[in-house]
Write a structure and sequence with these properties.
The protein is mainly alpha-helical. The protein folds into four domains: 2-64, no CATH class; 65-146, no CATH class; 149-174 and 181-241, no CATH class; 252-306. Helices cover 50% and strands 9% of the residues.
């Protein structure tokens, strides 16, 4: 009986919230519009009969976030966001495959970046498998090769930038190579380049120096251990990719990136200044629960989403 009363109270409270949002009794037309918006945004499809007939469709968000359609749509969204272009082969897009795995198994979002996994081809199929030496999808062979770059001494600037972009949303514009320009490690220390490569928290050369180095022999690419020694990054001494990824995932920038992804997925844009309180609530919820679904649900169930 107690559980029934608690459940009934939650339903009544949710309906009351919906009524308050429109200033009176639940508006069937508003509910229908809300159902359509949620269905399209979360699954890319028209809402089911259950969602469409609900007096408060936002109560169906949790179920929508468990659906196969949502998992596929969000995995594709993350893959598009984390890469400039699709991979040549499916295995070249490990962010897609691991995102699906994380969502299907209700794993913490941080596992996408530091979980003990590997994404590889097995019997002709791309699979996600447990790997004690894994680091999210960032040690997957296909990803390492795709973003290894072409820096002469094997310093993986592309890898460094892609890691920072994925975890914090950092966006930089590559300099246009002009005849006679020096883009070597020495040249990158010049005033026009060092702001991005050596100064600031995202200093690409210093971040790249704690990653493995690329060695190309003919068409074969291998990676060797970093040799530059520990670097002062993100307010701490960091020696390798695992320490770097862990520091990034534990940063407030990572939490902000998660909620910005939630807004981009649901609204197709970044949060507005007037949405600051909702954004803060999203961050607090994500910090407490750790799943990307919790961040998405915070935004999608807010009364403002269906106004």
């Amino acid at each position: 009986m107690t559980r029934f009363l608690i459940a009934a109270t939650v339903v009544v409270a949710s309906l009351a919230q919906a009524q308050t949002a429109v200033g009176g009794p639940v508006d069937p037309q508003r509910a229908e519009r809300c159902a359509v918006r949620l269905g399209i945004a979360l699954t890319g499809k028209s809402p089911s009969a259950a969602v469409l007939s609900s007096a408060n469709p936002q109560m169906e968000v949790a179920a929508l976030l468990e659906s196969d359609a949502f998992i596929e749509r969000f995995a594709r969204f993350i893959n598009t966001t984390f890469n400039d272009t699709p991979g040549t082969a499916s295995v070249d897009d490990p962010a897609y495959h691991l995102t699906r795995h994380i969502l299907m198994n209700d794993k913490p979002w941080r596992d996408l970046f530091i979980g003990a996994y590997d994404v590889a081809v097995s019997n002709g199929q791309v699979v996600v498998r447990d790997d004690p030496n894994g680091l999210g999808f960032y040690r997957s062979k296909a990803w390492l090769e795709r973003y290894s770059g072409n820096e002469e001494s094997g310093i993986k600037l592309q890898t460094a930038y892609r890691i920072l972009n994925n975890t914090t949303g950092l966006k930089l514009t590559a300099a246009v190579q002009t005849p006679g320009a020096d883009f070597s490690a020495t040249g990158r220390q010049n005033a026009s380049c060092r702001g991005c490569h050596y100064d600031g928290w995202f200093a690409l050369d210093r971040v790249a120096s704690v990653l493995t180095k690329k060695v190309k022999t003919g068409e074969t690419i291998t990676f060797t251990a970093p040799t530059a020694g520990p670097q002062d990054l993100l307010g701490q001494s960091i020696s390798n990719d695992k320490e770097l990824m862990t520091a990034l995932v534990n940063s407030t920038s990572f939490d902000f990136r998660v909620c910005r992804l939630a807004f981009q997925f649901l609204y197709g844009r970044n949060e507005l200044s007037c949405e600051g309180p909702l954004f803060d609530r999203c961050v607090d919820t994500f910090r407490a629960e750790g799943t990307i679904q919790s961040a998405l649900a915070t935004v999608a169930t807010d009364p403002s989403y269906c106004q």
